[in-house]
Amino acid sequence: MSSMLAYKEPSIKVTQEHLKIALDQVQLGFWELDLASYTLNCTSKCKTNIGIGENDTLDYDKLLNCILPDDRPLMPEAIIEAIQSAAGVYSLQYRVRHPDNTIHWIDAKGTVLFDAAAPSHIIGTMVDITEKKDLELLRDELFNVTTHELKTPLSAVKGYLQLLDRFIAGIGDEKITQVAKRALGSVERITRLLNEMADPANLSNQIRLAKDSFDLNALGEEIAANAMLINPEYNIRVAATNNKNLVFADRYRIGQVLTNLVNNAVKYSPDCTNIVVYIGANETEAKVQVKDFGIGLPKSEHHKVFQKFYRATSTPQNIPGFGIGLFLSAEIILRHGGLIGVDDDESANGTCFYFTLPAPAVS
Fold first, then answer.
1. 3-state SS, residue 33
2. d(CA 136, CA 133)
3. pTM over 0.70
4. Is pLDDT larger for residue 205 or for residue 172?
5. What counts of helices (H) and strands (E) characterise the chain?
6. How far apart are CA 73 and CA 360, in angstroms?
7. Structural domain harbouring 21
8. Residue 259 forms part of a structural domain
9. Which whole number is the average pLDDT over 16-44?
10. Are 120 and 156 members of one domain?
11. How far apart are CA 71 and CA 77, in angstroms?
12. Which of 229, 241, 225, 348 is closest to 296 using CA atoms?
């Protein structure tokens, strides 16, 4: 005779003390600002976040005086922007100086409340994000030092390769000349990447394009040769429908996309070393397909793999990656006005990624 034991979830009464402990742990404070009188009401955590005692009084003017002079004008500007915006969202990060002279970063967010269609209050939260900001600053400093230090030896490598290229050109060995030129091309790509990473204008994650006319076939052959140099056990074949497939695009960026797709094909086909890059074009578009015969990708995840940080469920644990490459590739193709995706043929082995580019306008 079977018996069933009923399990009853224990009831826990959440008290004000529980709530206070939770809010203290995350350093979260609550505040409310009357937009008519600019009367400020807040919890004690708001006070300690900006560096005053829990029992001290805090009004709007005193809060402004706690903010560093450089950041002080940002608060009234953010209030006006929140009132005038359709969403009524208040968001601001600013610095305050504590009595021990340490600088703390505050992240304040809120929502405008309306009374008879007129803005009456802003209610919101405030949290100390100093630790997070310090880590960001440390990361940026290490990043800047690293990029700077890499440029010096890279310039030396480029110089030696240029000397080697001129020496080989005098010998007349076409194959070795091509190897030297590809090495120089790789150095140029790394240099451009470092320059872009160090440029503050690129911190907004904007992808800028420098379009020109080039042959997709030649780019495909170059990317395949580079990949086979690193992975000599693989046979990466380029199959093109025309002698030349010209496009008007950013060659460096399209090279990034193609390199990422070929590298993924290598990573996800450990037991089958054949990879094919198909390149074709018609009157309206050029199309590139990278076909491997590896572990494959479930159809349900075809659209998900282009999301930032997404990794397929079929990915073995020993295959490294962060889920950034395909997201970046999709952004590049989108900015070119093309399409990127995965072929839906489930009967085929492996995976076939593709992207398209608009055909160049006929002048």
1. strand
2. 5
3. no
4. 172
5. 9, 12
6. 50
7. 16-128
8. yes
9. 80
10. no
11. 11
12. 348
